[in-house]
Automatic annotation (TrEMBL):
Presence of keyword Nucleotide-binding: yes
SUPFAM superfamilies, alphabetized: Guanosine diphospho-D-mannose pyrophosphorylase/mannose-6-phosphate isomerase linker domain, Nucleotide-diphospho-sugar transferases
Pfam families: ManC_GMP_beta-helix, NTP_transferase
Name of the protein this chain belongs to: mannose-1-phosphate guanylyltransferase
Reactions catalysed, as given in the entry: alpha-D-mannose 1-phosphate + GTP + H(+) = GDP-alpha-D-mannose + diphosphate
Amino acid sequence: MLYAVILAGGVGSRFWPKSSSANPKQFLQIFGDKSLLQTTAGRVRPLIRQDCVYVVTNDRYFDKIREQLPELPPENLIIEPEARETAAGIGLAAVRLARRDPQAVMAVLPSDHFIGSEQDFRRCLSWAAEFARNHKMLVTFGIRPTEPKTGYGYIKMDRLLVNDNGRRAYHVAEFTEKPDFDRALRFLQSGKYLWNSGMFVWRVQEILQAYRRHMPEMYQHLAHLYEILGTPDEKEIIRETYAKMEKLSVDYAIMEKADNVAVIPADFAWDDVGSWRSVERFLSQDNAGNIVNGLHVGIDTSRSIIESEDLLIATIGVRDLLIVQSDRAILVADKERDQEIKDLVRRIEKRNLREFL
């Protein structure tokens, strides 16, 4: 059976001040009247039974997820005692699924990505699950690059493994983390590289074997957790064991090392919604090229992103600005420098102004 594991523990500091540690990006309504998390969960529902959808998060967001996804069984929230990157969280989800269904196929999905056609996504996911089940491979979705982006990881396609009426899977030659511009341009021009979407599909037994092979110490911790799941001391033992696990992404811990990794080029529009500028492609603009959410009155204002929670934002003679008002702070920035918001958040932390984050 196919299960969805949605990763929903991050903060999304690049969307500050709209996103905060108390209300991170996955809970925001960026593309309509549903949050990114609600949209992600709804996207898989026609394909995956509701009781087969899991969310990996932490204690702080338990109530918020229950509020946004009331139909989800409470036991389907997998609580991380602390943030330790995706290798630990995905491993914990894998052992939970293995206890429930040793033959499970597991789709790992970030909670805060944009997907264009949901129907195309489900078709691709269904085919990927069948491929992973039949070929015992670790599968990831690759996105065909449209520009030499330096903020994405890249996947190099190797030999063709399957061509099923145009649906293709390739053996992965290598992963490259966030190349510089010149290298990203070469990747784009070669036609052999895809963006790494951070979405994965695999048999639960296959990913656990990959942990055993490539991360033996972490595998021992996961094997211990497998044994104690359902016992009275489960929560305390998970807390103690989790603290011993390395802080590693699943890409670095497993995907870059394994030799049974396949990539399927996705045929749906995708964006990781990693910055304010990333939403420009998907939201409607006024005649001056502004994206406005909230109350705004302007004179000679163009090509700006203006987000107001409860105040009037008034502008005169500005262009290419990012203006975001929340209940805690107001951000005014050159739109082209939105990637620096994460650095700005660190500066605010160093100033001991955490109440504004």
